[in-house]
Amino acid sequence: MSSPNGIGQRLVAETFVVAAIAVWWLSSAQFPPNVFPSPIQVFWELVRLSTDAEFWGHAAATGLRVVLAVILATVFGSALGILPRYFPWIGGIVDDVLVPFFTSFPAIVWAILGTVWFGLTGTAILIVQVLIIFPFCLVNVTEGGKEIGREEIEMGRSFGRRPWSIFWRIELPLLAPFIVSGARISYGVCWKISLIAELFGGRSGLGYMMQWARDFGSVDSIIAICLAIVFFVAIGDALILRPLTQLFQPKMESKRAKKGHQSPEILVTPTVGRG
Length: 275
Known about the structure:
Number of helices: 11
Number of strands: 0
Strand content: under 5%
CATH architecture of the largest domain: Orthogonal Bundle
Helix content: over 70%
Distance between the termini: 47 Å
CATH topology of the largest domain: MetI-like fold
CATH class of the largest domain: Mainly Alpha
Structural class: mainly alpha
Order of helices and strands: HHHHHHHHHHH
CATH superfamily of the largest domain: MetI-like
């Protein structure tokens, strides 16, 4: 059964959503529909988009690029974030050079440079996405490596385990919560920045559709596409990333409870530079 506090919080949240829609409805009455459409107008545009094969084609293009970008950024960010555990001199490069550079470099500049370097292609959009979300994975795994003590490694060595076996059976499972947390943060951010990249250099995707809607002054389409993205992010997080987080989270709970460390999900959230 849900606790009274949980029920109360949910009631407050739902009341807030209803109030926001009411304010939206009242505000839309003060402006022309082509400037500030009403919730009903946006709802019917969502219904139209949901039956439009072209919309689903563009959504699939954006979604595929997002998934590939998250996978690539997670793999490269995790690999680089683990290296300081084996080569301490790399830690200075990661902490003092790479992290400050990637977290402060404006995202919009990556989008501009991507179109200049690689042209108006899907590859350019994918590279831009990877470069922007890369620090989320890098910082999480780097800090996660610092959280892991040497006791487990020494225990593995005392049992005669080889270095690769120690990494695969001990270190990687302990780093898994940090890797998944970085991927989860990157997933939500990547959907947002994909629109920037597609607006600048895309010939397909939801950002391209939004550009088309802007050219024709279709504000209801722009808002409907944004709401569709919110839905896609929520579905991906609920069906894949949240279960993965819950699966790997218990591996570190007892260790962190003893040391008083906080959850990897809130350990590091680097700020992406804005143009």
